[in-house]
């Protein structure tokens, strides 16, 4: 996953919220501080890349959510993470 600050001020990633749904429509919500043990601060135009995973009981599912960010002016805001597909290796072409 790659995050890029497309705003005009620096922002710190405070927390994340994921909604993970498998092919049988079972949903799990995951919330927590930072990502992979970090709370990076991104300057305008700067990016942060990390690798993570999710365990689902079907070969295919989806994931979407949001990050809570803290701008350098002290305001917090949420940024949406659009839905994307999760799939086991060699399931989708």
TrEMBL record:
Q: Which Gene3D superfamilies match?
A: ApaG domain (2.60.40.1470)
Q: Which residues form a coiled coil?
A: none
Q: Could you tell me which residue ranges the ApaG domain spans? A: 1-93
Q: Which InterPro entries match?
A: ApaG_domain, ApaG_sf
Q: Name one GO biological process term.
A: error-free translesion synthesis
Record protein name field: ApaG domain-containing protein
Which organism is this protein's natural source? marine metagenome
Q: What broad taxonomic lineage does this protein's source fall under?
A: unclassified sequences, metagenomes, ecological metagenomes
């Amino acid at each position: 996953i790659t995050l890029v600050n497309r705003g005009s001020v620096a922002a710190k990633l405070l927390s994340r919220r994921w909604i993970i749904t498998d092919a049988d429509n079972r949903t799990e919500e995951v919330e927590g501080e930072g990502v992979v043990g970090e709370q990076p601060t991104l300057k305008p135009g700067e990016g942060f890349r990390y690798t993570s995973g999710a365990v689902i009981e079907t070969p295919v599912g989806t994931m979407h959510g949001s990050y809570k960010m803290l701008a350098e002016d002290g305001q917090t805001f949420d940024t949406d993470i659009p839905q994307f597909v999760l799939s086991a290796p060699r399931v989708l072409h």
